[in-house]
From TrEMBL:
Gene3D superfamilies: 2.40.50.580, 3.40.1350.60
GO MF terms held by the record: DNA binding
Sugar fermentation stimulation protein C-terminal domain segment(s): 83-221
Lineage: Bacteria, Pseudomonadati, Pseudomonadota, Alphaproteobacteria, Hyphomicrobiales
Protein name, as recorded: Sugar fermentation stimulation protein homolog
Amino acid sequence: MLFNPPLVPARLIARYKRFLFDAELESGEIITGSCPNTGSMQGLTTPGSRIWLSEHDSPKRKYRHVFELIEADATIVGVNTAMPNRLAAEAIALRQISDLGDYTTVRREQNYGRNSRIDLLLTDPLRTTTYVEVKNVHFMRQPGLAEFPDTVTARGAKHLEELGDMTEAGYRAVMLFVIQRHDCGRFRVCGDLDTVYAAAFERALKRGVEVYAIKCKVSPTEITPAGLIPIDEPGIAALNTSIKISAEG
């Protein structure tokens, strides 16, 4: 996925009020922009970091610039939480995730569950309807190990329960973690930061929910899905034998 028009380089001054940030453009101009990420962004808000911004001319926008990428831990990380759904659809179309690319129809943001929307709904006359929930990941405390969540997420736990409900209703359900960085070779659920989510994850596995983690190649010019990586969870292979790990990109 190419960034078009090209991103604007800058230096981060501060990220604040969750949805806003201040930065200095290469011209020296100080701007305030929109940060499309409600998470804690642990490790991704260091003042002075190199960042890249998309620029928008729409008069409906309060802020012209949107925070897209940041350089951290000697790599470039995507922070826009609107990206993972698009990247997931791209990975599925490229057949990087099990057999999900064999479905004839992919619909986005479909109502289901308890007042929820599923990110991707896959249908095909010859296949079991599949519900795909996508989560954005960019948290890393140990080199090479991506983790989710980076803070408590009651909504995320609810989604896992609803995916389990779908499997028990006879459908197929998939939890897909999209990691907007390339310097990771493994993924795990961060149980020490959210014990409720970790418990919901274990229940989802036992109920037949499939789980995949896919990393991405990220640069100031493009971001693309780069293949599945192993999930570090005790017993995950035994509980979910349908998981197939492809070669890393």
